[in-house]
Amino acid sequence: MAATPRPGHPALVPETIPVVVAPPTRKVQDAQRHPRLARELATIRAMVAIYCHDHHATHGDALCAPCGELMAYATRRLDRCVFGDDKPTCANCKVHCYTADMREQVRVVMRYAGPRMLRRHPLLALHHVIDGRREAPDLPAPASRRTRSPSP
Ligand code: SF4
Ligand SMILES: [Zn+2]
């Protein structure tokens, strides 16, 4: 009788199984389950595009390399935001998860693109203004602290 292959043994893995590589970001691209995060992503993307197009002669969806890096960084931060869909605008945030350098880069982009958003992306601009008026929440307590019973 043939020996039963162990789980994970190559003989048990058909060659046709596609390798599913998890994308670097997930929540921000799931507009149905995370509409707030998806909208934030659209807003920052629109702002970076306005800035990049006007300063670095790019067009359409294209960004120059540094702006592309900034966008990738902002997308990762957004995806891992501790507030999730209850997030404040990053400008009002009490946590500020960006590094000082990236925060300064985003500030420069927003200062330029912000006033131009109303004309080019009025709906996103309106939502951003409304979101910016909401009170920023405090940092949520870690899950372990929330569920742990008080010590005697
Ligand atoms: S700066 Fe604040 S709101 Fe923005 S992604 Fe980081 S933790 Fe979330
Ligand atoms: Zn650029």
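^ zinc ion complex. Residues 27-137 form one domain. Confidence is low (pLDDT under 50) at residues 7-14.
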